[in-house]
TrEMBL record:
InterPro entries: EccD_transm, T7SS_EccD, YukD-like
Similarity-based family: Belongs to the EccD/Snm4 family.
Membrane-protein topology: Multi-pass membrane protein
Subcellular location: Cell membrane
GO cellular component, one term: plasma membrane
Major subcellular site: membrane
Pfam family, one: YukD
Organism superkingdom: Bacteria
Stated name of the protein: Type VII secretion integral membrane protein EccD
Organism: Kineosporia babensis
């Protein structure tokens, strides 16, 4: 119930309309435009009709500041007890007249920039904490000759971060601070596991070291997911990242000399691309969101089954969103790393495979509505294309680089600018969406034979045939 109150808060405000005074509780996160119809119905008879002659209605603060209809109340600083005025849209609201120039300067300064608040102090302190942990991890990773003690320190630090984050979340009821404290534990555990398995004569970050580090990262990510009640997508993303790294390292370890890191990167990135369309349905199933049931007979229709309670459904929907965001985050981290490995190889087939996977993620981003979820495949595709172009440039000669890579980047810059200007004002046509679906399917199907070529399966089959 606490999670529902935090997510779906209510602001108890007083709304002055031309016909009456309302004291209502309004959802803080719902856009003001969605609240206006209810306010017009309760604000007086024919109030909505009267707005046709005045250009509509707008909510203003007592100082005349108009509320943004596309944003909620909480993001605009509206809290309990606030007095709002429902006035015609075209009504002139004069600026306040000051009798002292100092007041004008102070008011202008407040409007030009935000003042430092305790929230900024909290965010700054937590940010310094995370930065210090990351810096400590990097220093211990780069310290030669002390892998054993450094590994123990890093694993102990990961345990302290996880326990501290769980304590902040469960004991002190500060789940957001607990999530920030426990979030770096997976990265620290990865570094500690790598150093723990690092021998004096072993290559740096070999498959054995990566397996140990990924296993440690998986352990602490799951512990953080269970111990912290906020920002679940961070820990789910860390868990998916650990599983992807563990799978890639296992492929190289099980078939040494046959499967190298390029082969493992091709397999892992292709499998994640093939599985990613199932992530939305998987998140719904894991969150156990109740699906609507259709009555089968009159008895079912008369049963008057109202379904689960509204707060329970909201909690499950939020959980499903966190799961989907975490799955997309982990997929993005593993895919970008795998595409960088493919592009660094410099061969033709790995470069083509990396480019196709990056393009497929870019096309797949359009199917996600939430901004932070759509951002994951967009960044995956853009970073994947960047490393692919960089790998292609290093593989080509200087003359070929100037002849092919430079014009390609110029065309990408022009095309992205044109798309930003056009599609920010209008939606793509259904025909364009249909073509995007077709290209998405074709790119996804093309990754399987290219992955087989990277693995050398075609040469192996030809060898069997003599």
């Amino acid at each position: 119930m606490t999670a529902v109150t935090d997510r779906v808060g209510l602001a108890r405000v007083v709304v002055m309309t031309p016909k009456r005074r309302l004291t209502v509780a309004l959802p803080e996160q719902i856009p003001v435009a969605a609240l206006l119809p209810a306010l017009l119905r309760q604000g007086g008879e024919d109030l909505a009709v009267d707005g046709l002659a005045t250009g509509g209605w707008v909510l203003r603060k007592v100082d005349g500041t108009a509320l943004d209809a596309t944003r909620g109340l909480a993001p605009q600083g509206i809290s309990d007890g606030e007095l709002l005025c429902l006035v015609p849209l075209n009504q002139e609201w004069p600026e306040p007249e000051y009798d002292d120039v100092v007041d004008v300067i102070a008011d202008g300064a407040r409007r030009a920039q935000r003042a430092w608040t305790p929230a900024f102090t909290r965010a700054c302190g937590l940010g310094v904490t995370v930065a210090s942990v990351v810096l400590l991890t990097v220093v211990l990773l780069l310290t030669p000759g002390s892998t054993g003690p450094a590994a123990i320190v890093l694993l102990a630090l990961a345990a302290v971060l996880t326990i501290g984050g769980a304590a902040l979340s469960r004991v002190l009821a500060d789940a957001k601070a607990g999530a920030v404290v426990a979030a770096p534990a997976g990265l620290v555990a990865l570094a500690g596991g790598v150093l723990l398995a690092q021998g004096p004569d072993q290559p740096w970050l070999g498959p054995g070291q990566l397996m140990t580090g990924a296993a440690a990262m998986l352990l602490f990510s799951v512990a953080g997911l269970l111990g912290v009640a906020e920002r679940r997508h961070i820990f789910i993303g860390s868990t998916v990242t650990a599983l992807g790294a563990l799978a890639g390292a296992a492929l190289v370890t099980i078939w040494p000399g046959t499967v190298d890191r390029v082969d493992a990167a091709a397999v892992v990135t292709t499998v994640l691309l093939l599985l990613s369309p199932a992530f939305p349905l998987l998140s719904v199933r894991l969150a156990r969101i109740p699906l609507p049931s259709v009555p089968r007979d009159m008895d079912d229709l008369r049963s008057n089954d109202t379904g689960p309670a509204f707060p329970d459904v909201v909690v499950r929907v939020v959980r499903s969103t966190d799961i989907l965001t975490g799955l997309m985050l982990g997929t993005a981290l593993i895919t970008v790393t795998g595409l960088a490995i493919l592009a660094a190889d410099g061969s033709t087939v790995p470069l083509v495979l990396a480019g196709l996977i990056a393009l497929a993620h870019l096309l797949r981003a359009r199917m996600l509505v939430a901004a932070r979820q759509r951002l994951m495949p967009l960044l995956t595709g853009l970073l994947g294309l960047a490393v692919t172009v960089a790998g292609t440039g290093f593989a080509l000669g200087e003359a070929q680089r100037l002849a092919y890579v430079v014009p390609f980047l110029v065309l990408v810059a022009i095309g992205s600018c044109a798309a930003a200007l056009v599609y920010s004002r209008q939606q793509p046509s259904p025909r364009a969406g249909r073509w995007a679906d077709i290209f998405d399917v074709l790119l996804t199907l093309a990754t399987a034979p290219l992955t087989a070529s990277v693995l050398g399966l075609y040469a192996y089959v030809r060898g069997l045939a003599g």
